[in-house]
Amino acid sequence: MKRLASLLLTGIFVLTGACAHQGHGTAMAGSSSGASAELHDAAGVTKAHAQVSEMDGGLRVKVQAEQMAPGSYGIHIHAIGKCDPPDFTTAGPHWNPAGRQHGKDNPQGMHEGDLPNLVIGADGTGTLDFVAGGATLTGLLDADGAAIVLHAGADDYRTDPSGNSGARVACGVLGRS
User: Fold this and answer.
1) For 148-168, what is the mean pLDDT?
2) Options 40, 41, 151, 155, the catalytic residue
3) Active-site hit among 49, 100, 156, 168
């Protein structure tokens, strides 16, 4: 009887430990320090890879673009994690939890989702490395997620709501990495 009780207690401890470990794993996934996205155009061609990581002071956003025409492109974090082609309007507005105007040069700006222009060189590639101050992954990856959207033209850093950057030409849903 003592042996049976001992086995039952051991089983309970093992199961409790496994459940606690699973719960801990879920909590860890929720507090992960990174997210990533592949941005595709309306035809499904990959145009960029984005990595977002939490750091002291904000979110670091790194984007590597490929197969693009040379020039400057507006790129923003959008409030909804949905990228339905052809126009990607399902990504919603810029991520803007503080309810500000658009752009670093706007006296009432800026959205937390505002990023500097992505500059593409003659070889069709470009990179962006920027810290969105004060932003967190928990705030960004809420119940409806978030996306990164690439626009057809350069952002003027002032005009609300999107910096006059034109149509949405590529989009990627951010997922924990």
Assistant:
1) 91
2) 151
3) 168
Catalytic residue among 76, 105, 142, 144: 76
Residue 76 confidence class, pLDDT cut points 50, 70, 90: very high
73 and 5 share a domain?
no
Residues 84 and 124 in one domain: yes
Shared domain check, 12 and 77: no
Q: 15 and 70: one domain?
A: no
Task: State the residue range of the domain holding 5.
Answer: 1-30
Known catalytic membership, residue 168: yes
The CATH number given to whatever domain includes residue 38 is: 2.60.40.200
Q: Is there a single domain that holds both residue 7 and residue 43? A: no
Query: Active site includes 102?
Result: yes
pLDDT of residue 66: 95
Angstrom distance (rounded) from CA 129 to CA 61: 6
Looking at 40, 41, 111, 155, which residue is catalytic?
111
* Catalytically annotated residue among 102, 144, 158, 160: 102
78 is a catalytic site residue: yes
Does the annotation count 111 as an active-site position?
Answer: yes
Distance between CA atoms of residues 17 and 15, nearest Å: 5
For 22-40, the pLDDT digits (tens) are 222 222 233 447 999 999 9
Amino acid (1-letter code) at residue 99: G
Q: How far apart are CA 147 and CA 141, in angstroms?
A: 9
Count Cα atoms within 13 angstroms, Cβ side, for 48: 33
Task: Retrieve residue 95's tokens.
Answer: 């991520």
104 and 136 co-located in one domain: yes
